[in-house]
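Exercise 7.
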Amino acid sequence: MKKVTILIALVTLSFAQVKAQSASEIMADYTEVSGGQKNWDQVKSFEVSGMAKLITQGMELPFHRVMDQQGRQKTTLQINGMEYVAIASDGKTVWGSNSQLQPEAKGDDETKNTILLTDDFPFPGHNWAARGYTVQLMGTESVEGVDAYKIKITKRPQWVNGKEVENVVFLYIDTKRKLPVLTESIVASGPNQGQLMQAYNTDYRAVNGLMYPFVITMKYDGETFQVLTAKSVKWNSEIDEQVYSMPKK
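Solution. The predicted structure, written as tokens, is:
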């Protein structure tokens, strides 16, 4: 009986190692197909602009997003000629516009969780091993008719109600094209805390040799709330650092 138990344990361990190795290979394929590790490592900043279709509000507004490898970022919408800051960070302070379009600092949890996203620059899973992430192949699933590998990415802990909790993202990678079709995660903080957020990636195009999804459909618990359609994508563009800082009211 003892020998049987040991044999089962060895088989289980071996299977776990194979799954982890397979996940690593899938992530490596994703990196290579999307542009290659060397090219991604040279990306220092990112800029995208286009139209945001807000389903609930029944509006379509111009959006602009910039971010860099230092963890600084800013996403804005243009509303009747005025700028609404959805989220911004100078690497330390995280802020956005309130209902009166005035700058307002975010709470502690949202600040910490937003800064954690620096590890995902310039794309989710970039240099995952070096960042201390673990990846696990959970099998394959169909995502809107596309067969995809389901990869569980466990990242550094995030913050919920002042406490560190597990930080998991599921990445669904097309088995044929080797590019992500869906990203899923539970919202840790903010007004949608606790909801399942899904980002569906379509219309991939090469921009200076790097692949980017020009249409991203966002859902909360399966309900579409926003569709982002990119018009312009730039890598390593010159960005004025002052745009990240929270202005005085």
